[in-house]
Input
Amino acid sequence: MLDGGPIAALAHEGGETGFTAELSALRPFAHDGLIQMDGANIRVTERGRPFLRNIAAVFDTHHAALAAQAGEKARPRFSGAL
Output
């Protein structure tokens, strides 16, 4: 389980939209039952454990930068889930 306290603190430092994009990107995981979002807490369910890498990638700024740098023509330099 990811305690929302640190997330809330970081979001406050980054302004009101500190984690808006990331929280929005987590909604499909929640819809599929892979995570549970309860207020400021995010919990990976048993069903979501095989997808933990994908879920964590939502918060990986390096991952996002590489994906943006790769563009549509080049392939990203990181592995993906099957």
Notes: Helices lie at 4-13, 20-31, 52-57, 61-70. The radius of gyration is 14 Å. The first strand starts at residue 35 and ends at 38. Residues 32 and 71 are 28 Å apart (CA to CA).
